[in-house]
Amino acid sequence: MTHRWPAVMLASVLAVGLVPGTTTQARAVPVDQSYPVPTSGIFTLRGHGYGHGHGMSQYGAYGAARRGLSYGRIVRFYYPGTSWGTARRWYRVLLTADTTSDVVVSRAPGLRVRDLGSGRLYRLPAVPGATRWRLDVEGGRTVVGYRTTRWHRYRPGGRAALVGDGQLNAHGPLRLWTPTGSRTYRGVLRSVRPSPGSAARDTVNVVPPDAYVRGVVPAEMPTSWNLAAVRAQAVAARTYASWSRRENRGRYWHICDTTACQVYGGVAAETRRGNEAVRSTAGRILTYGGAAAFTQFSASSGGRLAAGSRPYLVAKTDPYDDHSANPVHDWTVRLSARRIQRAYPGIGRLVRLHVTRREGAGQWRGRVVRIVLDGRRRNVTLSSDRFRSAFGLRSTWLRA
Fold first, then answer.
1. Are 183 and 175 in contact (CB under 8 A)?
2. How far apart are CA 214 and CA 230, in angstroms?
3. Backbone phi and psi for residue 239, each to the nearest 5 degrees, phi listed first
4. How far is it, in rounded angstroms, from Cα 365 to Cα 349?
5. β-pair partners for 142
6. Nearby residues of 26 by Cβ (< 8 Å), 6 or more positions away
7. Could you give the angle at which helices 71-78 and 227-247 cross, rounded to 10 degrees?
8. Which one of 134, 213, 334, 381 has the minimum C-beta count within 10 Å?
């Protein structure tokens, strides 16, 4: 996975942990930095880092591990003031690839269905020729079926339908069938109505913390890296999921499996070294004030961390991010004035980019907070995150 990581994981860290209320803007300082459109019509943007810069820099963790730091020292550097805790409660993970209302699994030893309305558990028999079982929806009720050459209805306990939502589990992982293929997951697969009275169902994987993190770590960091860095990633990912669980404890899912949360690929994503990192940090999370910490992370800090929305997400120099294996510590990209004009046609012809607020520390006075598109027709003021997103930039720490 290492060679695919920048395209897959770096997309993920753009979104991991993005919440309103960061302190970056509160600490921003006014600036007056004007970048007129070059005669070529193309800006050459120079920048540092990849991602929002809050919390752990993944390339920084790699650099720290290369210097011999343990995973404990790495997470203490990136999340100062946190304490150690333990994750014990299972996570409910929304599986977005299963876009249908049924939950279809391959037959498996010990396959059972639980009626979440009555609480009763039913063993599903080894029906000759049956290759798959499913939880489906008919008339707003959850029904059970199996497939031989076609689908058949099964009546657990003599009931035509379950009292409530249903879930499937077996002696080992379950192979889930989706419209695009199959994926294997540990834990339980649950068919859940997204709201009371809904005729639709979503598929949710209810899974122990360490089993979940085994399917996350290789999607968020190359497990070929120094083991201390991979262990730090396991702690950050487990803590982030525990934080999300607490934040969403009343919702039918705690965390999703995409870049909007953390990428989770189930059993297929697991690697030997990733599993070793999970085992050697088993259950460990970071806490603050007795609760799981908000452990944001991004690919590269560019050499300076950005202040975040929690006391332990501090702004400070990151000495570990700048090393020969980090291709995004410094970067250059070309952006044409024409592309900006196409994205914001109301400005007319672009005259200049005008940065009016920055964080206040670091080269160029740090990350951009606010930027104005100065056009002949009118001006448009954008947040740096919106500007970055509109043009696919690696970070907001940049200048033209």
1. yes
2. 11
3. -65, -45
4. 28
5. 137
6. none
7. 50
8. 334
**Helices 272-280 and 227-247: angle between axes, nearest 10 degrees:** 70
**The listed CATH number (3.30.360, 3.90.550, 2.60.120, 2.60.200) that belongs to domain 92-207:** 2.60.200
| DSSP one-letter code for 369 | E
Which whole-number Å values give the CA distances from 315 to 28, 69, 183, in the listed order? 12, 21, 40
Task: Tell me the C-alpha to C-alpha distance, in Å, between residue 122 and each of 145, 189, 221, 288, 388.
Answer: 13, 15, 40, 42, 52
Give the DSSP letter string of 246-289. Answer: HHTTTSS-SEESSTTS----GGGG--HHHHHHHHHTTTEEEEET
**Gap between the Cα atoms of 78 and 229, Å rounded:** 12
Measured CA to CA, the distance from residue 60 to residue 321 in angstroms comes to 4
Express each pLDDT in 344-392 by its tens digit: 999 999 999 999 999 999 999 999 999 999 999 999 999 999 999 999 9
HSE-up of residue 58 (Cα within 13 Å, Cβ side): 31
272 φ/ψ angles, rounded to the nearest 5 degrees: -60, -45
Residue type, 74: I
pLDDT, tens digit, for every residue of 44-88? 999 999 999 999 999 999 999 999 999 999 999 999 999 999 999
Question: Do 58 and 300 contact (CB within 8 A), yes or no?
Answer: yes
- Edge-first strand order for the sheet with 166-169 is 121-123, 112-115, 166-169, 188-192, 202-207, 91-94, 255-256
Q: What is the tens place of the pLDDT at every residue in 114-136?
A: 999 999 999 999 999 999 999 99
Q: Is the pTM of this model over 0.90?
A: yes
DSSP for 37-93, written as a single string? PPTTSEEEEEEE-BS---SEEHHHHHHHHHTT--HHHHHHHHSTT-EEEE--SPEEE
> Cβ distance 199 to 140 under 8 Å?
yes
Which amino acid makes up residue 202?
A: D
d(CA 16, CA 351): 34
